């Protein structure tokens, strides 16, 4: 993680340049009326009506970047399909290529709605939401000068359901639909024939992979021409075991609270099972507000903590709710020929990734994708010896070149073999940062 923080310092400049000066600090989402959905046009019982109005722009405003509220009206909040509204942020670079949109699913990994990128990316945002979201955007910093328009959805939705796969997928696809809608295009300048590529690493890969499994049946007509999926947590339960007690243990608290946000029964059960001695219940639940205050909480961090030990019955919740965790937390169940998204995929991951371990789960997922559609359209980039943090730095440069090539292929309608044509040295993040503008994603 320290390595990543370093990258932020490196990239902050070009990011700040893009931001116009704005006087007042923005309100956090729970205080900001912009986030409240307007009265719906459909009665709760009119399921068709709701489904027809997903991905509709309900409200829009310009912040330092363009902010668009999207109608997430059939988004899955828990077991039922419930209407919801969510925000996506559209960033238009200084010199934009308006025929290209990259949907960046940022790994904001949080059960607090105030951690959403739509807030954290605003000028003068405060607290952890700002630090973390800008860190995530830092990887794209060179492209804020010139390149595709960026769509950055708050894909966890208004209830911050981090780690809930289907919801992340719905919201990602609905945000793209909204960004490409006429109402958005008149505002953002995105062209009618624009093509879209999705990109996500870690928590962002969770949203991107689920969206890809759903694309064929949920958003068939969206002009998506590729997806990059990096460091994908294929099974939430495995990730729980992998990171518990280690330097990323807080991830377990965020993931469990995110799922609890979506499942009331699990929420109640786990709250009741929290240990109250030494304020452990309060410490666990404090993460629900990790981005709600400008100054960090005084409480001790939970990294290296045994999260299971905060519960009376240890990690019993993993088995008690294994049906939920396997349904919404395991990738690949819906990879079928019928659900073939019809666009190329690129997977990259460290072979020593301690978050998504075991490696064979990732390999199985990729193999499954290879069985639907064309094998050569699924790129597999294992990064030998790299960990969860270092694989991102190593892989992102290659990913950007691949995306550039996929856009070219879609626009020219000619076969490009993007995977094979990438230069060998494209695997270094530092190289990526030194590209001259003419080489960038235009
Ligand atoms: C929803 O859309 C479908 C197809 O466009 C249409 O046939 C149907 O009448 C619509 N339903 C409602 C309630 O608007
Ligand atoms: C996910 O991982 C857990 C333990 O790591 C395992 O028990 C479970 O069967 C896995 N789920 C699926 C659907 O493979
Ligand atoms: C973590 O806590 C659980 C529940 O108290 C316990 O069963 C487990 O052994 C602990 N793990 C470690 C590595 O201490
Ligand atoms: C799986 O795909 C089918 C359509 O083929 C869809 O009806 C179903 O809801 C999908 N399930 C999930 C969990 O994505």
TrEMBL record:
Gene3D superfamilies assigned to the protein according to its UniProt record, in alphabetical order: 1.10.260.130, alpha/beta hydrolase
Q: What are the recorded GO MF terms, alphabetically?
A: triacylglycerol lipase activity
Which Pfam families does this UniProt record tie to the protein? LIP
Extract the signal peptide range: 1-20
Q: Which domain of life is it from?
A: Eukaryota
Which GO biological process entries does UniProt record here?
A: antibiotic biosynthetic process; lipid catabolic process; monocarboxylic acid biosynthetic process
**Location of region: Disordered:** 416-442
Give the compositionally biased regions (Polar residues): 428-442
Q: Which UniProt keywords apply?
A: Hydrolase, Signal
List the PANTHER family: LIP-DOMAIN-CONTAINING PROTEIN-RELATED, PTHR34853
Q: What protein is this chain from? A: Lipase
């Amino acid at each position: 993680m320290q390595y990543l923080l370093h990258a932020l310092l490196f990239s902050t400049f070009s990011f700040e340049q893009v931001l116009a000066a704005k006087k007042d600090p923005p309100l956090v989402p729970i205080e900001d009326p912009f986030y409240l959905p307007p009265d719906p046009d459909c009665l709760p019982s009119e399921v068709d009506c709701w489904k027809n109005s997903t991905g509709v722009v309900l409200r829009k405003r310009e912040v330092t970047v363009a902010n668009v509220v999207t109608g997430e009206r059939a988004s899955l909040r828990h077991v039922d399909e419930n209407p919801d509204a969510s925000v996506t942020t559209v960033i238009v670079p200084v010199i934009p290529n308006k025929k290209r949109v990259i949907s960046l699913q940022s790994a904001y990994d949080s059960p607090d709605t105030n951690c959403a990128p739509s807030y954290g990316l605003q000028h003068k945002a405060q607290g952890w939401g700002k630090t973390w979201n800008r860190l995530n955007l830092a990887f794209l910093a060179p492209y804020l000068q010139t390149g595709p328009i960026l769509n950055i959805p708050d894909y966890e939705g208004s209830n911050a359901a981090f780690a809930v796969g289907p919801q992340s997928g719905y919201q990602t696809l609905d945000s793209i639909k909204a960004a490409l809608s006429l109402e958005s295009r008149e505002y953002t300048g995105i062209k009618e024939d624009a093509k879209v590529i999705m990109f996500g690493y870690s928590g962002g890969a969770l949203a991107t992979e689920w969206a890809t499994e759903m694309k064929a049946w949920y958003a068939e007509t969206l002009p998506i021409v590729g997806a990059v999926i990096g460091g994908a947590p294929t099974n939430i339960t495995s990730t729980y075991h992998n990171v518990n007690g280690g330097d990323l243990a807080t991830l377990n608290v965020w993931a469990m609270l995110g799922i609890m946000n979506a499942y009331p029964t699990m929420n109640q059960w786990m709250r009741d099972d929290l240990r109250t001695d030494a304020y452990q219940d309060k410490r666990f639940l404090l993460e629900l507000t990790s981005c709600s205050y400008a100054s960090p909480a005084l409480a001790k961090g939970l990294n290296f903590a045994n999260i299971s030990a905060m519960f009376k019955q240890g990690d019993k919740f993993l088995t008690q709710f294994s049906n939920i965790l396997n349904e919404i937390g395991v990738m690949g169940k819906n990879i079928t020929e019928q659900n073939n998204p019809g666009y190329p995929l690129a997977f990259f991951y460290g072979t020593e990734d301690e978050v998504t371990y075991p490696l064979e789960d990732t390999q199985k997922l990729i193999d499954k994708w290879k069985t639907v559609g064309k094998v050569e359209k699924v790129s597999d980039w294992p990064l030998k010896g790299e960990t969860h943090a270092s694989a991102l730095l190593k892989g992102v440069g290659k990913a950007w070149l691949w995306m550039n090539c996929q856009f070219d292929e879609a626009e020219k309608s000619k076969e490009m073999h993007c995977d094979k044509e990438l230069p060998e040295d494209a695997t270094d993040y530092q190289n990526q940062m030194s590209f001259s503008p003419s080489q960038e994603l235009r």
